[in-house]
Amino acid sequence: MLTVFRTPRSRVDHSLLPRPLTGRDAPDGRGTGGANRGLEVPGFAPSGPAGHPRDSIEHMFASRRELNERQREAASFGDGPLRVIAGPGTGKTTTLTARVEFLLERGVAPERILLLTFTRRSAREIVNRVRAIRGATQVRRVSGGTFHSVAHRTLRRHHAAVGLPDGFGVLDHGDGADLIDLVRGELGILSGERRLPKKATLAALYSRTVNTGVPLANVMLETTPWCADRADEVASVFTAYMARKRSLGLLDFDDLLLYWRVAVQDACLGDEIGASYDHILVDEFQDVNLLQLDVLVGLRRNDSRLTVVGDDAQAIYGFRGASPRFLLDAERYFPGLITITLDVNYRSCAAILKVANAIAADAPEGFGAVLREETPVIGASQPLLVHCADERQQSECVTDRVLELYEQGVALQKQAVLFRAAHHSADLEIELSRRRIPFIKYGGLRYLEAAHVKDLLAAFRLADNPRDEMAWFRLLQLIPGVGPAKARRVIDALRDDDRTLPLSHGEIKGRWPGVVDVLPSDTHDMSSALVDAMCAKEHESVLLHAERIRHAMAPLISSTYDDAAPRLEDLGALVLACAEATRLSDVAADQALEPPASTGDLAGPPMVDEDWLVLSTVHSSKGLEFDAVHVIHAADGNFPSDMALGSAEGLEEERRLFYVAITRARRNLAIYVPLRYHHHRVRDDHSWAQPSRFLSESVRSTLEEIPFIASSDPSPSWSPAVTINGSDVVAGELSKLW
Q1: What are phi and psi of 44, to 5 degrees?
Q2: 515, 497 Cβ separation under 8 angstroms
Q3: Is the dihedral of CA 99, 103, 105, 111 positive or negative?
Q4: What is the longest distance spanned by two Cα atoms in the chain?
């Protein structure tokens, strides 16, 4: 149960909510006491009263003896606004952990510390480190999580005040795109003679517009100029999308931030929410967008106790509306801000830091932390710049280098091949497979994207919100013989006279006998069982209700998908996540906001290799580190990507991305530049490549260059002339089988 002391207040003015988009417009605008639901950490629950302060300042700092002077200064900072510029490998997490521990030592209640991060894993890591220092009996729950998960918890608590239904559902990115596509079809806004963006692109346009506060027409001119003249039509789709979400009681990820901003900007409610926290700490502040910044300003308008930690040199999420300017100009939003810079690097050797600092020095602004080595790194080598004839030779060179380092004792798991775009590793994957080198590639199917998992999450949403039309539409199509048209007929048959769906499952159940005839006769039992399972029984736990729904869905899953057994096991694991939940829609929202990484390949063959190479896009590698890093395709047009060169901001974000790639390496770094790119696998059509513009003279002076070496293989790179009539041979062989 959540206990919140509520100060008297009026309801929120709904005029503050975003008004409809137009082609030239964007969305509007940009506690005393009480317990806040904290960050959920397995095995990390309240255990008695908070511990008493230690007897001396010396004892208080005993757990922070390993901190350097600037880390200690940041950790023990007072109560004003603080900005920590933390370069890569400078102990950012260690410093944040020490900061939380210091606040707890001063007597700040754990639930009155709000820790905002961009992954729940980061928040858990910090809290678990504090727990290890202070012991389970000393630490309760620090409030926190990702921006979206904290927004979700806040809106659940204050849903009535901001005009949201009690059981509102949360759409993931895929469901949001589907709903946009649905309303576009209903409006009859189709490509016709001129194409419109696909649903995923429309969803990205919507999100970028909302998160940046830039008018839709301007966003389309920048990102989809080929259809910018249809901005008014796109705006009408977005207006209908907003209206449909509201009528169905649904929020997408952007809505969570929009409604949270409305709440904290309200004079009464905002003061109550802000007063719930004595200290707010924000990790990776360079990744915040305008909406998130507005929320922070609203939370701290009456209290300056804020700590933001980030690195403008690692701001690489411009496509999500983030900007390094929010970190660089933070004093504009939080007056009296004090800045502490962490520049002692504990990760990379001095030679790699020279490369990183040279890349940073070429930037027109930012890159406030000039990195320096704390202690010499053992086993380090001079960073390499390897010139290759083409992509094929690049793959061979990378593989040779990987194996060479492996023989020197660098395990495959401690090596990573990084690239700008996921498809850049295609040729390398072929070469690795040919040489039987196991690898794992970051960016595969996420657990939430598995269709059967989305089916059960849709059922969880529907259990709390019978008007969730998207959930009905998805679940009905699991019934054999039911497609989109028949599913639509069933939904229409359930509607009231005012064309809305019933508010209770009791009403749905009462109408079902008159609706079921629309479905194939041999599916009546399974469809009726699903409708029955949606109704919660009196005094039934959320876990038991979830299991009843899973049981009702089992025959539908089995009839829809191959490999039903492992899929049902997946759903069983999801049901177990309901054990501590207060409602099923909360479980669906939590999974959408922070999904597990993968499905375990749906009970595929087990991995028998004890080691494997890591392949990853640079974006996915952020926050990781490896003994050896191989950066491939360091050629203009690939890195930087030609898609990002339309603006100075895009180019500078690519430079920061290159910097992130370089600073993942501890001891060994190699950058590979293909000389040419083939356009055809058989013929010799090709174009010449230019080394990345980020490899300037000053950067190259820090690298040992390995020149292109022509292949000694005299065989031609094209197929020989055909001398065998293959068709006749194949036909003759196959004719023997008929």
Answers
A1: -125, 75
A2: no
A3: negative
A4: 92
Question: CB neighbours of 309 closer than 8 A, spacing ≥ 6?
Answer: 83, 84, 86, 92, 95, 96, 281, 282, 283, 284, 285
Residues 6+ apart with CB under 8 A from 568: 550, 554, 557, 558
User: What is the average pLDDT across 657-670?
Assistant: 93
Q: What share of the chain has pLDDT > 90, as a percent?
A: 26
Question: What are φ and ψ of residue 320, in 5° steps?
Answer: -100, 5
Both tokens of 677, joined, read 């790119």
Mean pLDDT of the chain: 78
Q: Would you say residue 538 has pLDDT above 60?
A: yes
pLDDT of 40 > 80? The answer is no
| Residue 338, pLDDT score | 92
| Dihedral over Cα of 618, 620, 625, 629: its sign | negative
pTM of the model: 0.70
Question: Strand, helix or coil at 593?
Answer: helix
Burial class (CB in 10 A: 0-12, 13-18, 19+), 37: middle
Nearest alpha-carbon partner for 677 in 688, 668, 669, 693: 688
Arithmetic mean of pLDDT, 122-133: 76
- Asked if 677 contacts 632 with a C-beta cutoff of 8 angstroms, the reply is no
* Residues 85, 91, 97, 103, CA torsion sign: negative
pLDDT digits (tens, 9 = 90+) for 394-445: 999 999 999 999 989 899 999 999 999 877 887 888 788 778 888 888 754 4
- Tokens at residue 661, please? 């790639």
> What residue type is 694 in one-letter code?
F
> Could you identify the residue written with the tokens 């926050």?
623
Amino acid symbol at 437: I
Of residues 476, 461, 485, the one with CA closest to residue 512: 476
Residue type, 724: I
Give CA–CA dist 451/454, Å, rounded.
5
Say how far residue 27 (Cα) sits from the centre of its chain.
23
Decide if 383 contacts 351 (C-beta within 8 A): yes
Provide the residue type at 288 as one letter: V
Burial profile 263-274: b = 16 or more Cβ within 10 angstroms, e = fewer: bbbbeebbbbbb
Q: Where are the alpha helices (DSSP H) in 496-541?
A: 505-515, 524-534
Instruction: Give dist(CA 293, CA 336) in Å, integer.
Output: 17
- Residues 471-509 pLDDT 10s: 888 898 888 888 888 888 888 888 887 778 877 888 888
**What are 293-347's pLDDT values in tens digits?**
999 999 999 999 999 998 888 887 887 888 888 898 899 999 999 999 998 888 8
Give every CB contact of residue 696 below 8 A, 6+ residues apart in sequence.
358, 362
Q: Which amino acid is located at 248 in the chain?
A: L
* Closest residue by Cα to residue 603 from 565, 637, 638: 565
